[in-house]
Recover the amino acids of this structure.
């Protein structure tokens, strides 16, 4: 796997490791917290991760989102479908830098929910312009939240178990799929 930031995945000392650490929605690979969680449904992408992850460990921070390491003459072999946002580095770079290490360290201007980001999201056509203009960090954060339909929101929670957490993320993914099946334009 080619990590978008090799620095993060090689250093595990910062991770929150209390008894309830697995009950939060956070990156399945490096354990970091982020309001932007990328849900991977591509088996090719999961297979590309160096260490074998248990079932259901398929959502990541932007830095751990699997990216192709193999290339052909035509360019990298994609792990995602051709038009996927997960192949779009300009899109992905928008969500870099919002990670935090401990649930208590979440900046106050983040909202009280995270976003489950899927390969297909219906975003405003001019979303890059909306979020890339010079603006204070808190305003950019608000705009990043607002370019996604509300169905992507998942409340912050310290679930009673890791299984409840996984089940809520799966449920949310199902809601997102259903939303796009019934709201595709
Ligand atoms: Zn990560």
């Amino acid at each position: 796997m080619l990590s978008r930031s090799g620095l993060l995945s090689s250093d595990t000392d910062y991770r929150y490791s209390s008894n309830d650490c697995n009950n939060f929605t956070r990156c399945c690979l490096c354990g970091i917290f982020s309001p932007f969680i990328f849900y991977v449904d591509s088996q090719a992408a999961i297979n590309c991760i160096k260490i074998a992850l248990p079932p259901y460990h398929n959502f990541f921070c932007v830095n751990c989102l699997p990216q192709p390491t193999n290339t052909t003459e035509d360019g990298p072999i994609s792990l995602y479908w051709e038009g996927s946002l997960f192949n779009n580095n300009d899109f992905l770079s928008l969500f870099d830098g919002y990670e935090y290490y401990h649930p208590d360290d979440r900046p106050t201007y983040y909202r009280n929910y995270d976003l489950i980001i899927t390969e297909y999201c219906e975003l405003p056509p001019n979303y890059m312009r909306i979020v890339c203009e010079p603006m204070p960090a808190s305003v950019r954060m608000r705009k990043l939240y607002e370019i996604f339909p509300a169905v992507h929101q998942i409340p912050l929670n310290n679930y009673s178990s890791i299984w409840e957490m996984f089940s809520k993320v799966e449920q949310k993914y199902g809601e997102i799929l259903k939303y796009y099946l019934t709201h595709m334009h």
